[in-house]
Amino acid sequence: MISRIFLTVIAVCGLNLLSAQNLLDAYRYSFQNPTGSARFNATSGAMNAIGADITTGSHNPAGIAAFWKSELSLTGNMALLNTNTSFISVGSTDKSSSFETTINNAGIVFTTYSPNKNWMAKSFSIGYNKLMDYDRETYYQGQSLGSISERWAGLAQDYYPDDLGYFEDGIAYDAGVIYDIEGDATYEYDYFLHEDKALDRSQVIDETGGWNELAISFGGNYRNKLLIGMTIGIDFINYTSEKFYTETNPDLASIPQFGELKFQEDLTASGIGINAKLGAIVKITPNINWTVFASSPTALSMTENFTNRINYQWYTNDGSVGSGSGDSGEGQAEYSYINPWKLSTGIGYIVGKNGFIDAEIDYVGYNFSKFQFDNIGDRDFENALNKDIDDSFDNAINFRIGGEYVFGSFRGRAGYHFYSSPLEEISNTNGFSLGMGFRGENWFLDISYLNRNSNSLYSPYYVLNAVVPELDIEKRVGNVSLTIGFKI
Q1: How far is CA 381 from the centre of its chain?
Q2: Which end of the chain is more exposed for a tag (fewer CB within 10 A), N or C?
Q3: 303 near 334, Cβ under 8 Å?
Q4: Which residues pair with residue 3 across a beta bridge?
Q5: C-alpha span between 184 and 197 (Å, rounded)
Q6: Above pLDDT 90, what percent of the chain?
Q7: What is the CATH number for 204?
Q8: CB within 8 A of 366, min separation 6: which ones?
Q9: Which of 153, 227, 162, 158 is nearest to 192 (CA)?
Q10: How many whole angstroms separate alpha carbon 128 and alpha carbon 212?
Q11: Quick check: helix, strand or coil at residue 163?
Q12: Between 90 and 84, where is the model more confident?
């Protein structure tokens, strides 16, 4: 039954799949937009050719080998998230915003410094870094053509009521949204033959969670000419989505019987994974560093729990009000996901004692990503989904540039970043950063502002050969980070 539901959803839905793993899941567990220490954030992450920052353990572990002293640091973050949702066919825009505080980075590095030895510095570090933040609140409302009941009738087509899916068409039947009057497995619905009439609709989407990494790193500095490092990354993902979608009939005379339809989707996902990273920094001259580093794919073990509910109110021919409801109960899916590998390189220029500038690029192999399911009955779904990833995901290039200027005990910093999206429906992410810091003899304090912007197309459901609502969602995030650290 579950496999039949998955294959039907693939055939009917395209990108916006419900109650099954899909391209949006693949994107969510592949795309990274990392943050770390305030110094790292202030340079837009362009620190990997310079090093001596605890965040580099999650990116280029050779940076750990640039420490001369042991160090302990902690970074707090305040984020303002703004979302503008434009209803494309209506021309209206709705805005929503939220505020959160998190710990984006923490770590300790132990360094042994022996200036008279070839391996003059050896370091071991344990760091915690945020690789992606999923928090977002989205709201929209407007009047447009189409109804989600068209989707459910299409999913149910040619299946008798006892064979309907558990999470969409089956509960739509239970709620009375779709019905089979003639018993021929062809389903009617109250919006049928009224497809030229508009419905009022709205949706609230509340997403929370993040992707964090525990980076265990080792690094060595050979005569201050070659720095090498390795990281074992243990990744933790948690994601929660609550969606409340409503359709309301604004004119009973135009669409008889249809009253109000409410559809709620709850999804909770969690996972743990492991990866490895290798990196090297070559000091071509005392002022010029060249770096190359690579990240293996992360092998993630994921668990999802999901529940769908439908409530429907209709009007009978005599004007009385009827209602029905459907509840899927909780479903669970366990699967593995292999996300992309990444190869990076960059150049850092050290301006004597006056600071540095660093520029880097990544090449990310997104179409390497794939799902794996334990149940042999899901093999057809697995193959179809992985082919969809291979066909839809493009490998991508990221770019970062940033720098630091030293004036006495103070530092000024700035940066710019550009992260390519593997999916056409989701735009690239770009932004800028600013920051400053103070360096004392045994302690330091840094503050940064990091701005990021991205756009994505969204539909609450999808039906072939039918009108569906389409929205453009712009997400803007402003992060203010504060790091305090101590030399130990």
Answers
A1: 23
A2: N
A3: yes
A4: none
A5: 27
A6: 88
A7: 2.40.160.60
A8: 30, 340, 393, 394, 395, 396, 422
A9: 153
A10: 7
A11: helix
A12: 84
Interior/surface letters 199-231, b for 16+ CB within 10 angstroms, e for the rest: bebbbbbbbbbbbbbbbbbbbbbeeeeebbbbb
d(CA 349, CA 29): 34
What's the confidence (pLDDT) of residue 22? Answer: 85
Domain count, the chain: 1
Segments in 212-304 forming alpha helices (H): none
Of all helices (H) and strands (E), which one includes residue 202? strand 198-222
Residue labelled with tokens 């770019």: 399
Amino acid at 143: Q
Question: Model pTM greater than 0.70?
Answer: yes
Closest by Cα among 108, 126, 104, 111 to 40: 104
Tokens of 275: 């990866």
> How many residues can be counted in the chain?
488
For the segment 105-131, what is each residue's pLDDT rounded down to a tens digit? Answer: 999 999 999 999 999 999 999 999 999
Which segments of 114-257 are extended strands (E)? 119-133, 136-145, 178-179, 188-189, 198-222, 226-248
Q: Using one digit for the tens of pLDDT, what is the confidence trace for 189-208?
A: 999 999 999 999 999 999 99
Q: What is the DSSP letter of 51?
A: -
Sole residue written with tokens 């899909």? 22
pLDDT for the residue 20? 64
* Composition of the chain by helix, strand, coil, percent to 5: 15, 55, 30
Instruction: Give CA–CA dist 339/283, Å, rounded.
Output: 32
Number of C-alpha atoms within 13 angstroms, CB side, residue 124? 1
Residue tagged 């006495």 (tokens): 408
What's phi and psi for 147, nearest 5 deg?
-150, 145
**CB neighbour burial string for 277-307, b if at least 16 within 10 angstroms, e if fewer:** bbbbbebeeeeebebbbbbbbbebebebebb
Report whether 265 contacts 241 (CB < 8 A). Answer: yes
For the record, the structure tokens of 52 come out as 């001596």
Q: Which residues form the domain of 182?
A: 2-487
Query: Does position 21 have pLDDT exceeding 90, yes or no?
Result: no
Whether residue 152 is predicted with pLDDT greater than 70 in this model: the reply is yes
d(CA 218, CA 197): 64
